[in-house]
Description:
alpha+beta
Amino acid sequence: MQKVIWLFLLNLIVFGTSGAADLENSWSLQKCIDIAIENNLQIKKLKLDSLGAHLSYRAAKSALYPSVSGGISYSFSPQIKPDTNLYIRGFDTLRQTGDRIRQSARYSVSGRWTVFDGLGLQTDVKIKELGIQKTGSSIKTSQVDLMLAVTNAYLQILYSKEGLQNAIASRDASKVQRDRAEALLSTGSASKVELARMEASLATDEYNVIVAKNNYLQKERDLKKLLQIPLDSVIILNFPDLGDSVALPEIPSIETIYTAALKTMPEIETSQINVELAALAIKRARSSYYPSLSVSGGISTGNSNGTGSFTEQLVDNTNLSIGADLSIPIYDNNKKKTSLENAKIEEKRAELSLKDAQIQLYEDVQSAYYDAEASKSKFEAAKLQLDRARQSYEIAQEQFKLGMINPTELLVEKNAYLSATTDLLQSKFSAVLSRQLINVLMGKPISL
């Protein structure tokens, strides 16, 4: 009974397109991509890096403004009796003599502002702003990689599903042919050897169905791992109908793809940001050659008991200070010069990395283009091959029913048909995946 229930659930998963499956609860490719991006730990870490970059930018921008601090101090000490030159002890004695504990307080506010430092602070702001863009580009890179991985896993499940359906259809056909061979054997039109071959073919098909089911479940587990959801969770995939228009679209030229990819691929964006960061690093190193000027100021006051009213003391004890600090670099053992030269080297390295990324992207575009063209050609050839193999197999089936050919000849036609079916599936999904890769390179959304 448990085996029957398991097989029922398996078929429900594989062929879960019945009315019982609410489309709102089904998982389209886009939903799988969204869930994978939402759950991916690497992307979550990169988003935290982005938050840190925003905080660094805010801190760099705040450094352009003056810093202000304030302070309050309070102290008290016992008075000394003039006649004994000793500290007064005890509050009763204090009340008797009329002397009190001396109390005093100080209040101060001070500030400092860097007026000029060779535009170093302003350069820091630009560097931190580019840091935000760089973390955003890193997030995009991870999202694109994950999107392609999910699409591939999704198509692998669809490929496995169609492979399972073909395996089941082949098994059912083998059952009919085995029964026909038994009938021919009873009339003397077939030998036991030929019947045994049909039995062996049926057993092979039964085995292929089991392998196809296991393959489907494995591909589904692979997708769940990418989505980072429990492996025992039940998902109902909403598979689209991949017609010829999806597998045989018009493929843009290499230059068209490459031009679009230069504007959209995050790897290029990251390399361009690195070049800008290197240029700013040179500017920051040069700023250390300039004098730096900062101004400071402060105001303080205080009061104590027994020396006048509180307001009068605050006015009388007010101290105001204003100062300026000018620092002129003279010689630092060539540290600034070395930093500047290193920054120039990093700029050259960043420019070379950008060129390398552009060359690699062009090679990727070429590879994607030729793969798409080859997959398209293979699919067209596989369609023609399958059409001819189907016709030949159908004729052979009719001839077998009429006793015009023996089981061995029928198996030859059947195997040719199955091989053509497999070739068509492989070329079809290869063409679809190649086209989706081109969409990604051009910055277009993946859609089936």
